[in-house]
């Protein structure tokens, strides 16, 4: 079904090339580029969400590591206290041992049993002190290892945060560009907005939607004076913003077009003809580079209201002017990582 659709589109676009319509190849290429931009934007959003999840995981690991470090520090302090107590005991026993040796010289007969007991206590105290010092050294090594792991995790988190900040900075800049562009367009078209013309932001682009009644008579592609006035005001804004790419899409309702004896065959032809007429009006008397503009006919297949009523059909008969800012900096940053 999709192949048949694109085949018919290609045949129709080739047929229109004789009246200065955009070629099918260029339209298809720009359409693919637009899809690619949207896919890249979605991939970036996904990447951004993934980074946020990874950061939360790292922060959780760091919190757990800090808790472990606090426990190790408390254990070290406990071992130090035990070691100090063992050292104090050792000094006391040493003093007692020295006292006994001095007393032994004054005694006629020394107590060998008491001496052996004190010697055994002294040896046990020495062994206990050595064990405490070995445990303290082992805990200090563990602490150093955990500190190194914490430093590595902290460094990785800082790198990820730096990347996120850089991406958010570019995204905020792009949002500001789009918002500023919308404000400029709304200001230029102040007298027309909500009178057959709307200016909205969607998917990082500015959409200027013009009802059929503002531009054309029914089944016609000739723009009336009121519509030309609105387009001329818009062309002034576009002329002052040369980095903005411009796509003009013609849309019809689902009522079959009656060709009569004219040069158009159906709603495809009518939507394309209206789009190219808007392109010529925007370019007329302006300094806009024609390379920035693309005309496309969407016929009846992208309605804003799918209901089969006269009100819905009136909404669907429209011309959308889609303004896309330069996203080169954003894509360069994404490709950098």
Notable characteristics:
disordered N terminus; 9% strand; alpha+beta; five-stranded mixed beta sheet; Helix Hairpins; single chain
What's the gist of this structure?
The protein is α+β, with helices and mostly antiparallel strands and 337 residues long. 67% of the residues lie in helices and 9% in strands. The protein has helices at residues 2-16, 24-106, 112-188, 212-215, 225-239, 267-283, 310-316, 328-336; strands spanning 197-202, 205-211, 245-251, 293-297, 318-324.
How are the SSEs ordered, and which strands pair?
Blueprint (H helix, E strand, L loop, with lengths): L1 H15 L7 H83 L5 H77 L8 E6 L2 E7 H4 L9 H15 L5 E7 L15 H17 L9 E5 L12 H7 L1 E7 L3 H9 L1
Parallel strand pairs: 3-4
Antiparallel strand pairs: 1-2, 2-5, 3-5
Helix pairs in contact: 2-3, 3-8, 5-6
Structure description:
- The chain has 337 residues and is of the alpha+beta class.
- It folds into two domains: 2-47 and 181-336, 60s Ribosomal Protein L30, Chain: A (2-Layer Sandwich), CATH 3.30.1330.60; 55-174, Helix Hairpins (Orthogonal Bundle).
- 67% of the residues lie in helices and 9% in strands.
- It contains eight helices and five strands, in the order αααββααβαβαβα.
- It has a five-stranded mixed sheet.
- 21% of the residues are buried.
- The model is unreliable at 1-22 (pLDDT under 50).
How many distinct helices? Answer: 8
Instruction: State the name of the first-level CATH class of the largest domain.
Output: Alpha Beta
CATH architectural label of the largest domain: 2-Layer Sandwich
Assess the beta-strand content as a share of residues. 5-15%
**What is the CATH topology of the largest domain?**
60s Ribosomal Protein L30, Chain: A
Strand elements, count? 5
Distance between the termini: 39 Å
Question: Helix/strand-derived class?
Answer: alpha+beta
Low-confidence stretches: 1-22
Percentage of helical residues? 55-70%
Mean pLDDT across all residues, rounded?
84
Largest sheet entry: 5 strands, mixed
